[in-house]
Amino acid sequence: MNQEMYFNPELETMPRKQLEQLQLDRLRLTIGRCMNAPFYREQLGALGITPDSIQSLDDVRRLPFTTKDDLRQNYPFGLACVPLRQCTRLHSSSGTTGNPTVVLHTQKDIDEWAEAVARCLWMVGARPDDVFQNSAGYGMFTAGLGFQYGAERVGMLTVPAAAGNTKRQIKFICDFGTTVLHAIPSYASRIYDVMKQTGVDPRTDTRLRVLCIGAEPHSEEQRQRIEENLGVKAYNSYGISEMMGPGVAFECLEQNGLHIWEDYFLVEIIDPQTLEPVPEGELGELVITTLNREAMPLLRYRTRDLTRFLPGECPCGRHHRRIARLQGRSDDMIILKGVNIFPIQVEKILLKFPELSTDYLITLEGDTMTIDVELRELFTDDYRRLQDLTATITRQLKDEILVTPKVRLVPKGTLAVSDEKKAVRVRDLRKLF
């Protein structure tokens, strides 16, 4: 085994049997910690569950689910399992639909978080002599500080560029010799567009080689286009602020699924309707139980993210289970004319066409779906070409999503693009009435 491949060889290559015993031991400790929070103490007491009653990992199914609403209803510190004086940081969501969700961390939680992200970055080839640039927002948004601490743990020179100001981002990339970049997929595409506009060739004018992407669902087609445009290898990242943020799961160099760090998390995939486990390999909702958190452990947290377990061992030598790239969220599913549709299905088709850019918007009104998608280059004066392209795209979309959308090809720059926020892919006007 090449020890240089792993940031923490002992834990990353731990045999399954030993890893599962570690999970069981930590699950019992986690239940004991949860007893310190009135919310969990009441729920676990009603079910007669104690740490000693957990005899196998399958017993996790006896535990109650935790939802985002539970966190909101216990705002701000109702799920704390240690006194606040032992906590060193909190992160929270925006709370645009009610109370925000608040997650507390002890110093040990912060240190473990940095370790998890460092493993992820090391796994895709980041090393101390790299220069890491983070284009995520700092503050309450976990991707900023999460990647920052992980990159520092690896030992890289870090550029905390934060979100927005794309021309400045590009200047930093060029001037500081950035080799590893973190950006959400839609913003990575935005960086490339601005590079083209300003005459910067990412292959010759920069040293970029690794891109970490996450925070919004994206198709394999979008990842491949980003790699082609920027001349990098792009690796999928999965994080969720209720767990800690980035560092929950990450692709390795094989790019064949995201390894979940199972010494930190016990993961299940369930049917979001029946709440029962789905058969191995089938799509379902990811449910996560924390195993190594002090301040605010969570039991069977329903992420609403849709994925599936991938079978078999990974050639990289890590035995932690892999999940497929996210297909979206169970609450983002579009139901139109009785058909279930996910935005990523639309994106997968659109990005097959080199004439199209990565920016699109799905608008739902009544029983009609309209898809506005930007052209990569301007040829709006060629009406016949536009007409033929529109017909071809519409036909392929119908084959994929089983309904016929209205496709509108619009000039580059028509759709609003934010340098700081996740891309808005769906506008559902049905919810306004």
Overview of the structural elements:
The chain has 433 residues and is of the alpha/beta class. It is 30% helix and 23% strand. It has 11 helices and 21 strands. It has helices at residues 9-12, 16-34, 38-47, 68-73, 107-123, 142-154, 166-176, 185-198, 220-230, 343-350, 383-401; strands at residues 87-92, 102-106, 131-134, 157-159, 180-182, 210-213, 233-240, 245-251, 258-260, 265-270, 284-290, 301-307, 309-310, 322-323, 328-329, 334-336, 339-341, 356-365, 368-375, 406-410, 426-428. The strands form 5 sheets. Strands 4-3-5-6-7-8-9-14-13 form a 9-stranded mixed beta sheet, with helices on both faces. Strands 10-11-12-15 form a 4-stranded antiparallel beta sheet. Helix 5 (107-123) crosses helix 6 and helix 8 packs parallel to helix 9 (220-230). It is globular. It starts with 8 loop residues before the first helix and ends in a 5-residue tail after the last strand. The mean pLDDT is 93.
